[in-house]
Amino acid sequence: MVEGLMMDIAGAEEEIMRWKIAALQEADAGKAIEQEYISQLASVRQELEEASQAVIESEKKLKLKEETAEAAMAARYAAERSLRLADTRASRLRDRVEELTRQLDDLDTREASRTGLNRPRYACWPWQWLGLDYVGSTHRPEPPEQTANEMELSEPLI
């Protein structure tokens, strides 16, 4: 019986050793799987960080594009306003030239009827606007006043 008991103990010890070796092998396998999992997790975290940086860069680029678009729209609006102002100014100047031409024609007609002569006209209005005398001038009319917008348009754009 002791012998049978010894055999049972020896068999149990062998069984314990097999279970211990199997448990150690399972633990090693588990550690390898855990290391692989940790490695994959670190890789996924790295990819996530890179994707996050890419999103931040994309947002910066998008914001820059939006700001550029806003600046372009503001410049377009300013250009349109400037063109409308220039058109208005040109229209007023054209009206002024027509009025002055009409006045000159009236003056020439009156002078010709008064003297009976048809003398040629020696006037160049732009020279008169610049404050220069023209041939045969007896008086100098005042130059038209410029508005702030007209003066602004006469300055070069930067």
Task: Write a concise synopsis of the structure shown.
Keywords: Coiled coil. The protein is an all-alpha fold and 158 residues long. 80% of the residues lie in helices and 0% in strands.
SSE topology sketch:
Elements: H1 2-115, H2 125-129, H3 148-154
Report the mean per-residue pLDDT as an integer. 82
User: What does the largest sheet look like?
Assistant: none
> What's the count of strands?
0
Oligomer: single chain
Q: What is the helix content?
A: over 70%
The general outline is: rod-shaped
Kindly provide the radius of gyration, computed on alpha-carbon positions and rounded to a whole number of angstroms. 50 Å
The topology string of helices and strands comes to HHH
InterPro entries: At3g49055-like
Coiled coil: 34-110
Protein name: Paramyosin
Region (Disordered): 138-158
